Amino acid sequence: MQKRVHYNSSYLPYLLVAPQIIITLVFFIWPAMQALYQSFLLEDAFGLSSEFVWFDNFVELYDNPRYLDSFVRTAFFSFAVAGLSMGVALFFAALADRVVKGAQGYRTLLIIPYAVAPVLAGTLWLFLFNPTLGIMTYFLDMVGINWNHKLDSSQAMGLVILAAAWKQISYNFLFFVAAMHSIPKSLIEAAAIDGAGPAHRFRTIIFPLISPTTFFLLVVNIIYAFFDTFGIIHAVTAGGPGNSTEILVYKVFNDGFVGLDLGGSAAQSVILMFIVIGLTVVQFKYIERKVEY
Amino acid sequence: MLNKSIIAASITAALLSGAANAAVEVNWWHAMGGTNTERVNKIAADFNALQSDFTINAVYKGNYTETMTAAIAAFRAKKQPHIVQVFEVGTATMMAAKGAVYPVEQVMNDSGVTLNKSDYLPAVISYYQTPEGELLSMPFNSSTPVLWYNQDALAKAGVTDAPKTWDEVSSVSKKLVDSGMKCGIAVGWQSWGLIENYSAWNNIELGTKQNGYAGLDTELTFNNKHVTANLQRLADMQKDGSFTYGGRRGESLAMFTNGDCGMWINSSAYYGSIKGQAKFKFAQAMMPYDSTVASGPQNSIIGGATLWTLRGHDKEDYKGVAEFMKYLSSAEVQAWWHQQTGYVPITTSAYKLSQEQGFYQENPGTDTAIKQLSLNTPTANSRGIRFGNFVQIRDIINAEMEMIWNGSKSAETAMNDAVSQGNKLLRKFEKANK
C-alpha cells in the first residue's frame, strides 16, 4: 500500500510550508547572518565607522585566556546543572510513579518551578543565600559555615548551579514521569511476581526503558545550561567573584551590551551557534540511533 | 513646600494643556531609579509648566548601562532621544562618537542660550570638556566618594575623630573590631574609590597621556607600588575583619546601615539612603589620603552622570534642549536637587544658595563632597579619567580585585593583570575610533 500523499497542484505544498519558512528566515536565519557579518567587523558603539577585519575578532578570542577559561567553566557548569537537575528529577519521578493517592497533586506542585522566570529564580535563591540578610546564610553560620558567595568562587558556582538546576527539575520530571507511564504495566508486574524489589525493577527495567528520554533530556539540559541560565547568573552573581561564574553566554552579553564591543560579542555568539548546531547533530544522528530499547 | 509646588505645577500644566498640543516634544532618557525618578519627573514637570513651547518627556530606561545601551541601539535604528543620561565611565565612548553627539555648548550657542561656564565647579566640568575647553555634556548628577562613619561606634571604640589617612583607617578599623564590631570598614564601587579616586586624591597618575585626556594612545599605569601597597594592606586587614568586602556596586550599604561595619567609603549620594536606614548617628568625612604618597589630599574626581545631546533631530527641538539645560542648571533647581539627593551642586551659585538657605548648618557634613572636589585646582592626575572601553576595564578591575580579596592573587599580580588586560582594550578602542 502506498502511503505517500499526492498533491495535484505544484504550489500548494510550498504555500503550506511558507509560514514556517518565513518565520525561520526572519527570526533565525536573518539574525544569525547578521551576527556572522558583525563578527567580521570592528565597529565603534554607534556604528559610525566600521572596518572589515576578517577573523581578527576570532583570533583575539583565541588569544584571550579569559575566554578560554570561560569555555571550561561553561562545560563544567552545564554538566553539573544537567546532572543535578536530571538526577533529582529522576528520583522524584520514580517516587511519583509509585504514588497512588493524590498523584496529580504532587505532580502539579513539582511542575510549578518551571513557570518561574530564570531571573526570578535567581533572585529567590539570592535572597535565601544573601551573605548579609539570607536565611540560609544564617543557618549555615550556625553550623559553622561562613557563606559569602560574593567572595568565594566555589560557593558562587555552587549557588548558580543550584538555582539553575532547581528551575529545570520540573521540566525533567515531566518527561521522566511521561516516559515511565509509557512502560507497559505488565512488564513491571511480571518482574514483581518474579520477586524483583522496587530498586531492582528500577535498575533493570525502568531505567533502560527510559534511556531515550534520558538522552534527549541530557542534550536539552545542556543547551538550557548554555543559554537560558543567563537570567540566573545575571541576578545572582553577575559573573563574579572574579570571573568565576562568567559562562559563555554571559560573556556575550557583557562584552556586547555592557562593553559595547559588538564585533567581539558577535564572534562569541557565532561560536555558540556552532556549538548548538554540533549538539543538535549529535542528538539526531548519533544518540537517537545508538539508544536501543 | 514640595507638595505645594507640585500642585502649582500641575494646575499650571492643566491650564496650559490647550497650548501644550503645539509644544515641541523633547525626549529625555534617564537612569534615575527609585525616589529619584519622582525627582526627575518633578524637574521635567516644573519646566513644562514654566513655558509652553516645549514639553520634556522624562523616561526611565533602567540602570546606567541599560540606559546607555538603549540610547546607542536607538541611535543605530534612528530613533534616538534628544537627551540621554550617561554615566562618567561612558564619557570616552560618547566623546569618540563625534557624528552622534551634539556638544551641549554648541547646542546652547546655536540656540542663542547663554552658558556661563565660569559658574560651574572646575572639578565637575573638567571631566566633560575637550582639551580645548568645550563642554560636551551637561553635568547633572555628580557625586564623589566620601568616608561615611558610624559616630556611635567610633565613640564606643574610643575614637574621637574620623581617620584622615589610610594608616589611621587601619588603626581605627582595628579598634572598631576590638570594641566588638563585626567589621571595621567596607567600600562600595571599589574601582572608583580605591583606584580611580585613590590616585586622584593622592595626585598620582592612573594612566599615561594625562589619564587619557591627551590622546587615545594612553596606557594604564595603576599597577604602581602605591595602589598595590594600599590594596594589599586592605587584603591583610581582612584577617581580623578590619576590612570586609561587600560587592562591586553599592550593596555594602546594608553592612554599614545595619551596624556591622563602622566605616564605609562610597558616594556622597548615599546620604538619602543612609539617613533613611541607619538607626545610629552617622557623619561623613573626607576620604583618607595615603601619607606615604602625598603630604595632603589633592582633589577627588566625580562619578555620576551627565546629559548628552544626540544629533538627528530638528533645529527647533534643540532650542528646547538648550532651554531645558539652562533651566536644569539654574541655581534653584540645582540646590534643590543637591539637598534632596546628596549629589553635589554643579555650580557655585547653587552651592552658595544652599549655604544661604542654611542647609549645611542643619545637616553638618553634607558639603564634604563639594569641599573634596574643590579642595585644590585639578591637576592632570585629578582632573578626571578618559579611557575608552572603560566600562569593560572597570569590570576587569573588579574581577581582579575580587581575586585579591579572596586570596587567589597578590595585589601586585592582580593589578599587573588588570593593567595588561585593560591596555588591550584601550588598543582595541584606539583602533576602532581612529
Strand content of chain B: 5-15%
* Helical content class of chain A: over 70%
Sequence stretches where pLDDT stays below 50 over 5 or more residues of chain B: 14-20
Main interface: chain pair and counts: A-B, 31 and 38 residues
| SSE sequence of chain B, one letter per element | HEHEHEHHHEEHHEHHHHEHEEHHHHHHH
For the largest beta-sheet of chain B, the strand count, sense and barrel status come to:
5 strands, mixed
Low-pLDDT segments, ≥5 res of chain A? none
Count the domains of chain A.
1
Broad structural category of chain B: alpha/beta
| Whole-number total of structural domains of chain B | 2
Q: Structural class of the secondary structure composition of chain A?
A: mainly alpha
Strand arrangement within the widest β-sheet of chain A reads 1-2
The termini of chain A sit apart by 28 Å
Count of helical regions of chain A = 13
Distance between the termini of chain B: 52 Å
Annotated CATH topology of chain A = MetI-like fold
Q: How large, in whole angstroms, is the Cα Rg of chain A?
A: 24 Å
Which CATH architecture of the largest domain in chain B is right?
3-Layer(aba) Sandwich
Please state the second-level CATH architecture of chain A: Orthogonal Bundle
CATH superfamily of chain A: MetI-like
Count the beta strands of chain A.
2
Would you give an account of this structure?
The complex is a heterodimer of chains A (about 290) and B (about 425). Chain A is mainly α. Chain A has a single domain (about 45-290), classed as MetI-like fold, CATH 1.10.3720. Chain A has 13 helices and two strands, in the order H-E-E-H-H-H-H-H-H-H-H-H-H-H-H. Chain A has helices at about 10-40, 55-65, 65-100, 105-110, 120-130, 135-140, 155-180, 185-195, 200-210, 210-225, 230-235, 250-260, 260-290; strands spanning about 40-45, 50. Chain A has a two-stranded antiparallel sheet with strand order 1-2. In chain A, helix 1 packs across helix 13, helix 3 crosses helix 7 (about 155-180) and helix 12 (about 250-260) packs antiparallel against helix 13 (about 260-290). Chain A is flat. The two termini of chain A are about 30 Å apart. With about 425 residues, chain B is α/β, with parallel strands linked by helices. In chain B, strand 1, helix 2 (about 35-50) and strand 2 form a beta-alpha-beta unit. Chain B has 20 helices and nine strands. Chain B has helices at about 1-20, 35-50, 65-75, 90-95, 105-110, 120-125, 150-155, 165-180, 190-200, 210, 225-235, 255, 270-275, 315-330, 330-340, 350-355, 360, 370-375, 390-405, 410-430, and strands spanning about 25-30, 55-60, 85, 140-145, 145-150, 185, 260-265, 280-285, 305-310. The model of chain B is unreliable at about 15-20 (pLDDT under 50). In chain B, the strands form two sheets. Chain B has a five-stranded mixed β-sheet with strand order 2-1-3-9-4. Chain B has a four-stranded mixed β-sheet with strand order 6-7-5-8, with helices on both faces. Chain B is globular and about 65 Å long. Chain B folds into two domains: about 1-145 and about 305-360, Periplasmic binding protein-like II (D-Maltodextrin-Binding Protein, domain 2); about 145-300 and about 385-430, 3-Layer(aba) Sandwich (D-Maltodextrin-Binding Protein, domain 2). The longest helix of chain B is centred in the C-terminal third of the chain and has 22 residues, at about 410-430. At the A-B interface, helix 12 of A face helix 3, helix 19 and helix 20 of B.
